[in-house]
Amino acid sequence: MGILWWVFCIMLAIVICLLMLPVGIKVHFLHGAITFFIKIGPLTRQISPREKTDEKSHGKEGTNEKKYPKPASGKKNVSASFLWESVQVLWPSLKKTLSKGRRAITIDPLHLCCIIGGREDPAQAAKLFGWLQMGVWTVMPLLEQGLRIPDAQIHIGMDFQKEPWDLTGEVGISARIGSLVSMALSFAIPVLRWLKAYHKQQQAAPLTQGTAA
Fold first, then answer.
1. Binning pLDDT at 50, 70 and 90, where does residue 111 land?
2. 93: Cβ–Cβ under 8 A, 6 or more apart, which residues?
3. What is residue 77's predicted lDDT score, i.e. its pLDDT?
């Protein structure tokens, strides 16, 4: 009995440590090049773009492969009405979930510098500059209310001697595994309920059309 108790305590400690483990993704922007990193606890690994050694090893194997046309799938495209209805129905649940875990998700760092070039079309560049400024000042207050952003540095500028645009900086988002599991479960319940109701509605639609005909 004592051995089972110790095994249970060890397993419980491992589960608690895993739930407390932070995970996240960091994105680096440097003059048009984008690099993705994944972070699990103290470990960080680059996931995109892949290393050149992997590309070479896979490239040799793929040269002898024949490409065949893929058969057309019978899946239907998602309609815009379905997407709009999904947003209207699920947005309150998503907002509630984010409000509960607002301090669980951290965006850090958030350092971006976007320079819009106006050498080709100054009028279009000025218009884009205004839209970006309005978007930042509209979205950032909402993000700061729902998420934890300790240090946000976003700069948008213009340079009439440059090409269309230039983006540099880094963005990172992280959260503990336990918080993500809790948020996923709280949001999954209304999603499953809505999908079940939508599936029943789609099955009842052909029957109503057949009776009307």
1. very high
2. 187, 190, 191
3. 46
Which residues lie closer than 8 Å to 140 by C-beta, 6 or more apart?
152, 154
What is the value of pTM for the model shown?
Answer: 0.59
Own/partner long-range contacts of 184-188 (Cβ < 8 Å, ≥24 apart): 186/96, 186/97, 186/100, 187/93, 187/94, 187/97
Q: What is the percent of the chain where pLDDT is above 70?
A: 73
Q: Cβ distance 172 to 124 under 8 Å?
A: no
Q: Look up residue 204 and give its two tokens.
A: 């009842």
Could you list the beta-strand ranges (E) of the chain: 22-30, 33-40, 43-48, 106-117, 152-159, 165-176
Query: Which two tokens mark 68?
Result: 């065949």
Tokens representing 21 are 């483990």
Residue 171 scores a pLDDT above 80: yes
Question: In 3D, which of 72, 50, 24 has the Cα closest to residue 171?
Answer: 24
